[in-house]
Specification:
There is one protein chain. By secondary structure, this protein is of the alpha+beta class. The chain folds into two domains: 2-196, no CATH class; 202-563, Porin, CATH 2.40.160. The chain contains eleven helices and 20 strands. The chain starts with a helix and ends with a strand.
């Protein structure tokens, strides 16, 4: 009898090992999926952290709490949802009548979770329903306990059952040893993860861009530069559906504008040079109910943080388009610094966004501050009539935030007058945009936009110009080829016209004489989840309307992006 009891105890230990391994494997899988998630600023990452903590907590819970969900079954006929014709009928009958191992669900559970029918019996098996691993462990534990009592009290266990269990134990002995090793390794990795994780509520992400770029053609001598941009981001959630976003940044490449004399062809990762790390963005977003979201920014808040640009090639410099113009409609660029925004979804396929952004909002001197200085108010309606198609209509009203730093010099009126007269001219503008993105299939996405800005000068700053209004147009057509060549890679083509002054009533500041074309092509090769290499070229015909007899501008670049 003692020999039989010893063998049975070994079998129980083996089964327990299998259960623990299956639980540990699920936890390890969740951890790995989080590490490989390339999706930036995804709030669901924070929810996955919470899910992992819940899983670890469930593993540690006492499974006796599950006993309140089941009631003892003495005969298989008491299970009203099991019929003699069912393939599992005979197996259940043996387990119930020989060992009393099967329990049923109580009436209140059936009433509330299955049919809402009070006529259903209080004892059902629910064999087709999914259960958690802890529920399965609780049921198995109860069955083993009952078999142990049978052995201890009477030894009434058939020799055939014992022989079968021993045969299985011998047959899978090597497999069980491997499982034991994997279980120990998984548990060690989980313990290490708990001890070394950066934070239960925060995720640290980083991006480093190295760009080797050259002016291949133009009036200036050919020149090659090597620039970089580095960003560190903290994404913190306190409730699971909110996000505190903090970004530190440094850059040593401000673009070719000063060398080539135009903003056209400006690269997407070019920023004002700052060799020291500085606070680049700080904002907090949160939801109110299921359809309303708010975002409040202290610095670095931009229009695309409030309203989606819906351009597939928008990678904010680190991925996607290699030019600032190809990244998004230029009317999204002027608003920036501190402000507030909101998004309302009256229907699942409609999104209404609105925001107010001022700059510089932190200066108390006259002509500055949140309401007395430069500002932009924006509104956008985004519609997705079908899952693969997105349409947007955008409006931006700005005071002293009209320059996009794309397009011709004349289309950037404030910087143009600053260079020409030594002082920026105050402006007021109204910009209108239409955007489209259509994923024809998983490998072919077309898009585009059109924009009109009406910019008026509010002063002549005692210069030989008159007050008037500029009409500034831009348009683009884009083609994105996801997973081109290899999974995760991206091919892109952009054809359009950067912001150009097509009509002007400002005396001595006429419209641009020529119409330039922006042609761009790139291939983003995804080496792995953390490294991508992007060669590309930007070609500008008739660069800047004020440059007479200028050669076409061609800029080549190889961008390498490291992310973690």
């Amino acid at each position: 009898m003692s020999k039989l009891w010893s063998k049975f105890s070994q079998i129980g230990s083996i089964i327990s090992i299998c259960l623990v391994f299956s639980l540990s494997t699920e936890a390890s899988t969740i951890s790995k999926s989080q590490q490989n998630n390339p999706n930036w600023q995804d709030k669901s990452n924070l929810k996955q952290i919470n899910r992992q903590e819940t899983l670890l907590s469930n593993i540690q819970k006492n499974t006796d709490s599950n006993k309140t969900l089941i009631t003892q079954i003495n005969r298989v006929e008491e299970l009203r949802d099991i019929q003699p014709t069912d393939w599992s009928y005979q197996a259940l009958k043996n387990l119930i009548e020989r060992y009393g191992c099967i329990d049923g669900f109580p009436s209140h559970t059936i009433h509330s979770e299955i049919t809402n029918s009070p006529e259903l019996s209080s004892k059902t098996y629910r064999g087709a329903q999914n259960i958690s691993r802890t529920e399965f462990a609780a049921g198995l534990n109860a069955c083993l306990n009952k078999i142990e009592r049978i052995i201890a009290n009477s030894g009434d266990v058939s020799q055939g059952d014992v022989d079968m269990l021993l045969r299985l134990m011998q047959e899978f002995q090597s497999d069980l040893a491997i499982l034991q090793g994997r279980t120990d390794g998984s548990q060690a990795r989980l313990q290490d993860l708990e001890a070394t994780q950066f934070s239960t509520t925060s995720k640290l992400r980083g991006e480093a861009i190295f760009g080797l770029s050259s002016i291949l053609s133009g009036n200036d001598d050919d020149r090659t530069i090597f620039g970089s941009r580095l960003r560190l981001e903290l994404q913190t959630s306190f409730k699971g559906d909110d996000l505190l976003f903090t970004r530190l940044s440094r850059s040593d490449f401000s673009g070719f504008e000063s060398e080539i004399g135009t903003f056209q062809g400006n690269l997407s990762f070019a920023e004002a040079e700052d060799d020291d790390f500085s606070l680049d963005a700080l904002y907090y977003s949160f939801g109110v109910g299921n359809r309303l979201d708010f975002i409040v920014g202290a610095t670095g808040l931009e229009a695309d943080d409030i309203a989606p640009t819906i351009n597939f090639l928008d990678g904010d410099g680190g991925s996607g388009s290699i030019s600032a113009f190809g990244t998004r409609n230029p009317l999204y660029y002027p608003p920036g610094d501190a402000g507030i925004g909101g998004t309302y979804r009256p229907l699942d396929k409609i999104q209404i966004s609105a925001g107010y952004i001022a700059s510089p909002a932190n200066e108390p001197s006259p002509g500055n501050g949140l309401f007395n200085g430069a500002y932009s108010a924006l509104g956008q309606i985004t519609i997705a009539p079908i899952e693969s198609l997105s349409l947007a209509a955008t409006y931006v009203h700005s005071f002293n935030q009209s320059d996009t730093e794309t397009g011709t010099n004349l289309s950037n009126l404030q910087s143009f007058t600053s260079d020409l007269f030594g002082s920026e001219i105050p402006t007021i503008s109204s910009s209108y945009g239409l955007e489209l993105s259509w994923a024809i299939n998983n490998r072919f996405v077309i898009g585009g936009w059109g924009g009109l800005s009406k910019v008026s000068n509010l002063s002549t700053i005692n210069q030989p110009i008159d007050r008037g209004t500029q009409d500034i147009w831009n348009w683009s057509a884009t083609l994105a080829l996801p997973d081109l060549g290899t999974e995760g890679s991206l091919g892109g083509i952009v054809v359009g016209s950067e912001p150009t002054v097509t009509d002007s009533s400002i005396v001595n500041l006429e419209e641009d004489s020529d119409r330039s074309l922006h042609l761009e092509a790139f291939y983003q090769y995804q080496v792995n989840d953390n490294i991508s290499i992007t060669p590309g070229v930007v070609w500008i015909t008739e660069p800047d309307g004020d440059i007479q007899d200028a050669d076409d501008l061609v800029i080549g670049i190889i961008r390498t992006t490291f992310s973690f």
